[in-house]
Design goal:
The protein has about 210 residues and is α+β, with helices and mostly antiparallel strands. It has 6 helices and 9 strands.
């Protein structure tokens, strides 16, 4: 079995009814997936764009290993969003090697979002604890009071509450044990600081 077919079958999963929903959505005959498994047909190769769109991923995801775990078929409306790891010096946040996998989220276009795994307790007052997954919308601006993922000095990422007053920008923790970052608008204009996105949701494990 080739990698592409393996990935498609993994995405379809084994939940009751998921194969039927898949074939109906793509206008396939009920036996299509079975024919792919047996090698009787390779018609899926002509439908990769439609299959990728159905699962909310790209064709590149389908033909590589960068797909959600086997049997992780999403609920209606949920789409796979990449979980990005710690940012290293000089490496952009969307570099492939930082993809730790996928978590599902109810979003329109998953390419506009990413998850960050939080380390530390500086945002505990906002309900963001150590180990939490924070869903971030990709954008380079923020409104006053929003929680942002911000890159500082091109090699350090932090999650803080954004406040702006005149030419001063404060990145505020939600824990009195930590000090705020005090920046200027010039820091953002010259590239020594950059907003990577705005936090929209947090997921955390219950103890």
């Amino acid at each position: 079995m080739d990698k592409t077919l393996h990935n498609i079958l993994s995405l379809i999963g084994t939940k009751k009814g998921s194969q039927r929903r898949f074939t109906e959505a793509l206008g396939l005959c009920p036996s299509a997936v079975g024919d792919w498994k047996s090698g009787k047909s390779r018609s899926y190769t002509r439908r990769l764009p439609q299959i990728a769109e159905y699962f909310g991923i790209t064709v590149d995801n389908l033909i590589t290993d960068a797909v959600p775990a086997k049997n992780a078929y999403p609920a209606e409306g949920l789409k796979p969003v990449p979980v990005l790891g710690t940012i290293k010096a000089g490496v952009p946040i969307n570099a492939e090697q930082h993809n730790e996998g996928y978590e599902y989220a109810e979003v329109g276009d998953p390419s506009e979002y990413f998850y960050l795994r939080v380390k530390g307790d500086s945002m505990i007052g906002a309900g963001i604890t150590d180990g939490s997954l924070v869903l971030v919308h990709r954008q380079n601006y923020a409104d006053d009071g929003q929680i942002v993922a911000c890159l500082l000095d091109e090699d350090y990422a932090t999650l803080k509450r954004y406040r702006k007053s005149g030419g001063t920008v404060l990145l505020l923790p939600e824990n009195p044990s930590y000090q705020p970052f005090i920046l200027s608008s010039d820091d953002f204009e010259c590239g020594s600081a950059a907003i990577l996105g705005v936090a929209t949701e947090v997921k955390k494990k219950l103890i």
